[in-house]
Predict the structure of RHD domain-containing protein.
Amino acid sequence: MAQLNVPLRIIAQPKASYRERYSCEIGDRNRSQRYIHAENNSNHLNYPTIEIPKQWNSPRLYIRVTLVTVCSEQVPVAYIHPYPIDTSELNVIKDIERNTLYFPILEEELNQDRKSFRIIRKKLTQHELRNYGQLCPLNKDEKDILCTDNPLDVRRIIDIYQLGKSQLLFSLAELVHDDLLPSIYDETSIYSHIMTANTTTHINNNKSFVRCVPTKGHWNGGDDILMIIPKLDKRKICQVYFGCSSLNKKRRIHFEFVDMKTIIFTTPPCPIQSTGNQSIEIPIVVSQSDEEIARVNFLYQSYNQCSNCNIGAMFDCFKSSNSDGQSSSLDFCSDEIDIFSVCS
């Protein structure tokens, strides 16, 4: 077997700039998978990739991947990044507490001299980050630096630890005997380039443009909806309700703020009783100070269908809006999206 004390070599770095995605945009029955993509490279690899020597022919060897914070003058040590990473690949050992994935090295990858990683990264909402608790140093032997007096001050935590930036840490690991987790060869560790969340937004004169994802879901409700409303003012009382003009009634919905212009909520059951295989549009209305500031139609479907099956039409909608020079935190970039299982 090749020496296990030589640093790994990254042959396809992750993209330096990316759009952050919340849990409601990723996975599950009504969402598409979004992976970390690779920068343009000579091998035309789509995902972050490392070189694999053929001598590593052992079923006990794994590649450890951990998402970590970026060291700075304020925080000079790396911490386990609180935004979770995950994968849909099989036989991966997951250490959720350390935000770490252990990927087995497959025979096919040994023959190709490389291993690529399909990794999903999820941004936490402010509520989730507040409940996350104290961040942990990557190296357990390093002294924890208390960088903020108030662990519930989410905005300060985001700023101090620069959570908009992150790195992937790759290491060789070996599963020994009956251990639950592989043992890491620290001397093989290598950090990826820094990945930075793209926060640039361009809003044209049409301030009333509203974005909603997904735009359709199951008749029984339970779909998570992410809605961007340029006119939203967090300082004012806001109401969200599903209206049904045929029944002359509205249903108020509990929601949470994701940021200053974005809310998230879960759809209720359709207010109209299903009579079979049918679909119906119900308006989602957002108002502040008795003024309607947003209205979109949500399509309820009575059959068991993934609510992103018409994702192509959704992309067309977003592309047409971008053609006017408008984009926001819900922009969809086709080169950053993988849809491997749109419908079950």
Notes: Residues 201-207, 304-344 have pLDDT under 50 and may be disordered. Helices lie at 107-112, 126-130, 154-160, 311-322.
